[in-house]
Amino acid sequence: MYKLICPLLLLTAITSPFCSQNKVAQNSSSLPASDDGKPKIINPEGKTPFPYRHSVDQGLQDKSGNLWFGTSDGIFRYDGRSFTNYWVMDGLYTDHVTRILADKAGNIWFGAHGGIVRYDPEASALTGTLSFSSVKIQAGNGGFLTDNISNLDAPEIRNPITQMMEDRHGAIWFGAGYNVYRTDGRSGAAITTCVGDFLKREKVQYHCANPEDFSVCCMYEDKQGNILISTSACSCGPSVSYRLEGSRATHPCVLNSCNHDLHKPQEYAAHYKEIDASFSKITSEDGNTRIAFTTVLEDKAGTVWLGTDSGAYKYDGKHFTRFTKNDALSQSAVVAIYEDKKGNIWFATGEDVHFQGHGVFRYDPSASVKAGSPSISQFTTKDGLCSKAIFTNNIMTAISEDNAGRVWFAGYGGICYYDGKAFRNFTKADNFNEQPVNFILKEKTGSIWFGAWELGLYRYDGKSLTSFTENKPGL
Q1: Angle, CA of 193, 262 and 173, to the nearest 5°
Q2: DSSP readout, 220-277?
């Protein structure tokens, strides 16, 4: 998303050398012991000013209660007692994990630079070891993904897996660059869809010099089964959202499994006619097509909210409708949307062209009904919003809520919560190392986890904050 997504893609592009592996994890990868003997993630780099390559970026909890964290140094699994670290040697494509997805069947998918691996808990239970299996992918239309290649002849992988989504049929869709791939969720193979071909032809009109300048930045399946695909063209053209009609999502031409002979002009034309009939640009209520979204929330009332670089939009199944106009929210890049227990909708904002954010916004639907117009409040560092880390630029990354009703925020300014009256920031006195924070994960017990730069990992149990990271430079 032009102002927001392009810098993020740049950061995730910094990675370890590509290596394709198809091994099954045999044993837990050993971790150096922490000084106090407690379970910790060991950060071998120590503190560095801009540790883009050393951060905890993703997290989820599986059906068994285990916590999984995707980092720039592989995957960490926490079973409540100890951490296990998994790397390329255990079956990952690279050590930099960019996406994690848990599907309805209980499998966990890990996206990285170079491909996808799947963890199958049932297979792991049978073998007694964690079973990672690579997803076989034929070369993409843009040449970004390959399979079964050795370290010696591995091409440069220019794009990480940036998006993963499970549709209502259990199929997994994932994007890298402007290519989109699909697997049925059961087999070990993925199909290169026609999305890459379609977007590649769209890309021509934007005159993007580099492949990285045009990519898929978000995907979402709506209530009708349509697949919404949001693209980012950075500075070389408009960022646009497309709708892949749900009735055609498994069309043979969409899945590149039709029998058209593309060497024959008539069949070539027929093939792309089928593809073009499957897609449409999504417009706003005023006909604008230059809208791309990076986050989606369906609230309890069924309203679908989209975060874009120009504020929040609502989606009715056909069009995007701008939520507010000519205010601070409409001029902000919305990167996260959250509904609290009271029904308030919170919007977290990312960076603008000046590397500044606009803090967070709260929309109170009940107050709006009474007043007859949207009731929106803005909170920034001036109000006490997260401002104890190295950046105090109001750039936010995540929102959550604990069992006590406190709304938690994370961002480049650190960690804080709002109790309805005031903000409470966490500092070194609270065992927080005051670094930028990437995400928030609420586990089933109610504890709140935070992933940060410098391989930072923290847990708030309702009383205090615990750090699960120990800096040991040189290891």
Answers
A1: 0
A2: EE-TTSPEEEEEE-GGGS---EEEE-GGGTT-TTTTT-S---TTSHHHHHHHHHHHHT
Stronger pLDDT, 94 or 32, i.e. the higher one: 94
pLDDT digits (tens, 9 = 90+) for 395-442: 999 999 999 999 999 999 999 999 999 999 999 999 999 999 999 999
Q: Which residue has the tokens 């009383």?
A: 463
Tally the C-alpha atoms within 13 A of residue 61's C-alpha that lie toward its C-beta: 15
End-to-end CA distance of the chain: 37
Binned at pLDDT 50, 70 and 90, residue 212 comes out as low
Identify residue 209 by its one-letter amino acid code.
Answer: A
Residues in Cβ contact with 315 at an 8 Å cutoff, skipping those fewer than 6 apart: 222, 228, 304, 305, 306, 321
What are the b/e assignments for 378-399, b being 16+ CB within 10 Å? bbbbeeebbbbbebbbbbbbbb
Distance from C-alpha of 75 to C-alpha of 132, rounded to nearest angstrom = 12
Q: Does residue 141 register a pLDDT over 50? A: no
pTM: 0.87
- Beta carbons of 361 and 378 less than 8 angstroms apart: yes
Cα-Cα-Cα-Cα dihedral of 423, 465, 415, 335, to 10°? -120
Closest CA to 306 of 335, 328, 331, 282: 335
**Which DSSP symbol is given to 330?**
G
- Domain-wise residue ranges, the chain: 1-27+87-290
Angle of helix 265-276 relative to helix 195-204, nearest 10 degrees, comes to 90
40-53 pLDDT, tens per residue?
Answer: 787 766 554 454 55
- Look up residue 80 and give its DSSP letter: S
pLDDT at 296: 97
State mean pLDDT over 330-354. 94
